[in-house]
Design goal:
The chain is an alpha+beta fold and 209 residues long. Helix content is 27%, strand content 27%. The chain has a single domain, classed as 3-Layer(aba) Sandwich (Glutaredoxin), CATH 3.40.30.10. The strands form two sheets. It has a seven-stranded mixed beta sheet with strand order 2-1-5-4-3-8-9. Strands 6-7 form a two-stranded antiparallel ribbon. The longest helix has 17 residues, at 164-180. Its main location: cytoplasm.
């Protein structure tokens, strides 16, 4: 079931902040009433597609911050592994220089509650617990508004890296529609025409485009 239009699941978990500091009780609740949040999951530290995404978010971080949006990453690795990866130079496959928080979901409860864990626990014929699938997170991206409600999400399979510019575009769309009351048509980008959510508004927009 999609989380869109529902409250984002609440959690408290360890995270690495500022690229060098472990905090034990990180929560998205600190942003409610203050900032929108782009909360994204990735499969594993020290892998291949993941560092390209994490560094791409960092390269666009100033654009998100200019819009008063927090960026937060999460995987099922430990906070110590996060810290080790954050301390590894890029030329060695690391993500040194990343400053936004990265959450450690070692219990896999955050990924489960957000619907991105790529498998599930079950029992075999002997009554023994086993895991079917991959016990790591898919590439989920969630846009959470200032009320803590999920307004947009997209979930990719492991080989499919996400588009960071589109995450930024969705932030622009959300902020535009909340400020102006208009809706954003297909392929809308900041600076382009939006439209009124009426038959007349749609007709006028289509006639002009």
């Amino acid at each position: 079931m999609s989380l869109v239009l529902k409250k984002a699941p609440i959690f408290r978990a360890p995270a690495v902040v500022n690229g060098n500091q472990i905090v034990e009780d990180f929560s998205l609740e600190q942003f409610i009433g203050k900032k929108e949040v782009v909360f994204f999951f990735y499969p594993k530290d020290f892998t291949f597609v993941c560092p390209t995404e994490i560094l791409a978010f960092q390269s666009k971080l100033a654009e998100f911050e200019k819009r008063n949006v927090a960026v937060v990453g999460c995987s099922t690795d430990t906070e110590e592994t996060h810290l080790a990866w954050l301390s590894t130079p890029k030329k060695q496959g690391g993500i040194e220089g990343v400053t936004y928080p990265i959450v450690a979901d070692t219990a896999k409860t955050i990924a489960t509650n957000f619907g991105v864990l790529a498998g599930d626990y079950t029992y075999n014929e002997e009554g023994e617990m086993e895991f079917v699938g991959a016990p790591i997170a898919l590439r989920g991206t969630f846009l959470i508004d200032k009320k803590g409600v999920v307004r947009h999400c997209v979930i990719n399979d492991f080989p499919l890296g996400r588009n960071i510019d589109d995450a930024l575009r969705m932030v622009d769309a959300l902020q535009f529609t909340e400020e102006h009351g208009e809706v954003c048509p297909a392929n809308w980008e900041q600076g382009k025409d939006a439209m009124q959510a009426t038959r007349e508004g749609v007709a006028s927009y289509l006639a002009a485009h």
